[in-house]
Amino acid sequence: MRIPAARLCLGVQLLTGGVSLHAGDGGKVDEPLVDVAKVCPSVRIELRYATNNNITRLPLYPENARCMLRASVAERLRRAQAWLRPHGAGIKIWDAYRPGWAQRILWNAAPHAQFVGDPARGGSLHTWGVAIDATLVDALGRELKMPSGFDDFSRASARSYAGSDEGIARNLRLLQAAMSAAGFMVMRDEWWHFVASDYRAFGSVDYPVAP
């Protein structure tokens, strides 16, 4: 099913790099983390930081790491997946909840303030369980073409595609529209990075990624 580009862009919320990393008073600080594989079984999961296929070239998580999110954020992910189904597409997650210790390792390996949250300045909303790194797959689980790969710290990672490949532009708009419709904001500098719109209601959490 094809959708005009203008319609796909409606309602996309932009999140810049200057987000507040201070918990608010929304009452969700203690909301539990849930295993995405159990609550959203149709979502594909490929935790890049459990492999050496990431910017550090080393696995940060154990092999049996789980993909975790706050319960209400996982529910939004389920809605985004349902939104994409009529378009013959789905979501693959590259990262979700990231423990603080992993954030520190990532920063030490790649101290790029534009793309990686400095732990000394609050770190990342991944450590709150409210952020997702995701891409699109087709009905067979094959990744669709996007502007860049994961953790590509270049101009190609921006949310606004500046290239000439209409297929890539369409895929990016589709992903952004699905995530925005489900209650996520789009990160300005990383097309794959999405944050729950009410993230201020949460806070940092310390939880094991492996059972």
What features would you describe in this structure?
- The chain is an alpha/beta fold and 211 residues long.
- It has a single domain, classed as Muramoyl-pentapeptide Carboxypeptidase, domain 2.
- Helices cover 23% and strands 16% of the residues.
- The protein has a 6-stranded mixed beta sheet with strand order 1-7-8-6-5-3, covered by helices on one side. Strands 2-4 form a two-stranded antiparallel ribbon.
- β7 (184-187) and β8 (193-196) form a beta hairpin.
- The longest helix has 16 residues, at 166-181.
- The N and C termini lie far apart (40 Å).
- The model is unreliable at 1-18 (pLDDT under 50).
In short:
The chain has five helices and eight strands. It is of the alpha/beta class and about 210 residues long.
Key terms:
5 helices; alpha/beta; disordered N terminus; Muramoyl-pentapeptide Carboxypeptidase, domain 2; six-stranded mixed β-sheet; 211 residues; single chain
Mean pLDDT: 86
CATH topology: Muramoyl-pentapeptide Carboxypeptidase, domain 2
From the coordinates shown, what is the CATH architecture? 2-Layer Sandwich
In which range does the helix fraction lie? 10-25%
State the domain count: 1
Beta content: 15-25%
Query: Total helix count?
Result: 5
Any idea what the radius of gyration is? 16 Å
**Count of β-strands:** 8
Q: How does the major sheet shape up?
A: 6 strands, mixed
Could you outline the blueprint of secondary structure elements for this entry?
Elements: H1 5-9, E1 14-15, E2 33-35, H2 36-39, E3 44-45, E4 68-70, H3 71-84, E5 89-95, H4 100-109, E6 131-138, H5 166-181, E7 184-187, E8 193-196
Parallel strand pairs: 1-7, 3-5
Antiparallel strand pairs: 2-4, 5-6, 6-8, 7-8
